[in-house]
Amino acid sequence: LKEENASLRSKINKLQIFSETQADKVRKLEKKLEENKIKEEKEAQDLEAMVQHVEQNLQLMTKRAVKAETSATKLKQENALLQVQLENYKAENEALRLGQRASLAAVRHNADAAVRNLLAVVANSRSSIQQLISGAESLQLVADLLKSIDRISETSEDGQ
């Protein structure tokens, strides 16, 4: 009975030691489980914050994309308007060139007419100048004759 009692005590001691070991393991596992829960909660919060940050970035990028699209549309419209203006200016320039050519042709025609008129005036002037010179020579001859007549008459009056 003593042996059986000692054997049972020994078993009880072993079981108590085993039980304490198991209790320590359970406490350590519970502590580790609690640490893991805290860590997971922190990671979940971090993930939630990251998700919110990503959502905010997506909203900002969406706003920027909409703004860029609006700006691109406005720029396309402005470009189309400028293309129309450019075509209008090109047409206007061509019209002005044609008008300038026509004006240049008219100026040339007028200049040719003016040259012809000037040549006619020069020719008439030469003729008139020659007539004036001839008339002046005739007047000089008449004046010389009159002087001669005056001298002749003075000489005849003196001699009479």
From TrEMBL:
User: Per its UniProt record, what InterPro entries does this chain match?
Assistant: ENTR1
Q: Provide this UniProt record's keywords sorted from A to Z.
A: Coiled coil
Q: Which GO terms describe its cellular component?
A: centrosome; ciliary basal body; early endosome; midbody; recycling endosome
Record-level GO BP terms: positive regulation of cilium assembly; positive regulation of protein localization to cilium; regulation of cytokinesis
Which residue spans adopt a coiled-coil conformation according to this UniProt entry?
23-99
Keyword Magnesium, does the record have it? no
Q: Belongs to which family?
A: Belongs to the ENTR1 family.
User: What protein name does the entry list?
Assistant: Endosome-associated-trafficking regulator 1
Source species of the chain: Corythaixoides concolor
